[in-house]
């Protein structure tokens, strides 16, 4: 019997050792593949820098290593927005880059704010005297917006491709009728007539205030895009609107007739143009280099310097705890504290790309940022969103830069408590009998509606949070509380509108914010400063370890839908996303 036990234990130990070795070998193999995928490719001595939006996607922070994508042979390359902008600007002074060639189609992976910042970098490149050309077959609103910056915009002469240059739109979804059929009653308590985060659960159509703010946001975004397009194409905004509203843009000839493109080309004709731009006789001699490859080769890794500008990326929803994929309160507070204690960091840029979230987490992050701002210059840069909790954490920065199409503000708060008692009784045929130590012990059980006292309790909580929100914006921005309340009420503004309201200081890019921080820290040439990023992206090894440890690294679509109607208390969040109409 003892021999049997010994043998069994030996087998178990052997299997365990083999399993560990297998994991180590797997990690080593994946690490090797990841390393192989990151090897810098040599650049041609002379060629064309290509920006192909169908094969690259820009992201806020440096993208984490993705060994699975390398194994699967993914052709989509990720590049950090700041690196993309720096690479384009570097190309302006690089004699080996003869021109930039933009392929703007299939740009649905890009956000408006990213396109706006990349477009400004392309304007800088053009000022160097080098040409930018674009070629489109099926233009979308976002794709054409980027392409319009080019000296020449070419379009296929072939018909048949779908034209989706139709302006900007958003879709508001309302679930009350569906929830009624399921027996779910969402009890919404909020402050702010424009705070529409919970409307989708309690209404079958939009409120007048929600429609008002959405229409003005869309108009503001379109005004930014159309005015820049008009300036680049030497036409008027009225001409652009007339063509779109009358649905004139059916085929390539219509784009040419409306002065939106310069010439219709076949594939061979395009090749001849590119060869001429590259300064070679034949197209086969043209050397292309993609923007991610060029950035990897030209932008050397940041060296450890005695002084640096820290860029803290608040990218994602603000949540409680230490969630690695979101702006988690405890994790971010510790990151900020680390930056504050680092004597080599002389100034900080807070890059915000968040629709908001937990009030408690926002408070923790703001408290650390306030301490940091007392010892180092602190500037904010807004990306796609800096709304509600995203604005909460950043309004006390010394200066705020925002993209014109950023969605910000949303100074308001709400709580949503679903009551599924109807679902349990009429759909599931389940009876729930509460047993409580106190009168309101099952208040958050979701198995019964709130009574009047409980609704009043939540309303007081909401008012307390809203008053706090107004007071910190008033103090941070130097505005009267009455005025903040007037422009607050949950109202969402674009960056262009927010500048006129005093919520942001200047329309500018992340690069502009870094430049300001460097000058504020030392008044010297910002190019001499190192830039360090926080939080640091996880390596392939860290991702695998996180997986093995069961750490969260993403959300299931169904899980996120269910989460949308869970108990949500004291939430400062902006619910919708504006997407280009593709």
Beta fraction: 15-25%
Shape: globular
DSSP, total strands: 24
- The rounded Rg comes to 27 Å
Count of helices?
22
Poorly predicted runs are: 15-39, 552-566, 575-582
Labels describing this entry:
single chain; 582 residues; alpha/beta; 8-stranded mixed β-sheet; 6-stranded parallel β-sheet; 45% helix; 19% strand
Break the fold down into its secondary structure elements and pairings.
Elements: H1 2-37, E1 47-52, E2 56-59, H2 67-72, E3 77-80, H3 81-92, E4 97-103, H4 112-127, E5 132-136, H5 141-147, E6 152-156, E7 168-169, H6 176-182, E8 185-191, H7 199-202, H8 208-233, H9 237-245, H10 252-257, E9 263-265, H11 267-278, E10 288-290, H12 291-298, E11 308-315, E12 318-319, E13 327-328, H13 329-341, E14 345-354, E15 356-358, H14 359-375, E16 378-387, H15 389-392, E17 399-402, E18 407-409, E19 413-419, H16 421-427, H17 452-477, H18 481-487, E20 492-494, H19 495-501, E21 506-507, H20 510-522, E22 530-534, H21 540-548, H22 557-563, E23 568-573, E24 579-580
Parallel strand pairs: 1-4, 1-10, 2-3, 4-5, 5-6, 6-9, 11-14, 11-22, 12-13, 14-16, 16-17, 16-18, 17-21
Antiparallel strand pairs: 7-24, 8-19, 15-23, 18-20, 19-23
Mind explaining what this structure looks like?
With 582 residues, this protein is of the alpha/beta class. The chain is built from 22 helices and 24 strands. The strands form 6 sheets. Strands 11, 14, 16, 17, 18, 20, 21 and 22 form an 8-stranded mixed β-sheet that branches. Helix 3 (81-92) packs parallel to helix 4 (112-127), helix 4 (112-127) packs parallel to helix 5 and helix 13 runs parallel beside helix 14 (359-375). The longest helix is centred in the first third of the chain and has 36 residues, at 2-37. The termini are far apart. Mean pLDDT is 86; it is low at 15-39, 552-566 and 575-582.
